[in-house]
Amino acid sequence: MKKILAFVFYSIISTCLFAQTEFKNAAFIQGEKLVYRVHYGFIDAGYAEIEIQNEDKKIGNKDVYHAVGKGYSNSTFDMFFKVRDRYETYIDKTNHSPLLFIRRVDEGGYKISQNHYFNHTQNTVSSEGKIFSVPNQVQDMLSAFYFARNIDYSAAQKGQVFEIPTFVDNEIFPMKMRYVGKETIKTAFGKIRCLKFRPLIQKGRVFKNEEDLAVYVTDDLNHIPIRAEAKILVGSIKMDLESYKNLKNPLSLVHN
Question: CA-CA distance, 37 to 243, in Å (whole number)?
Answer without folding.
Answer: 9
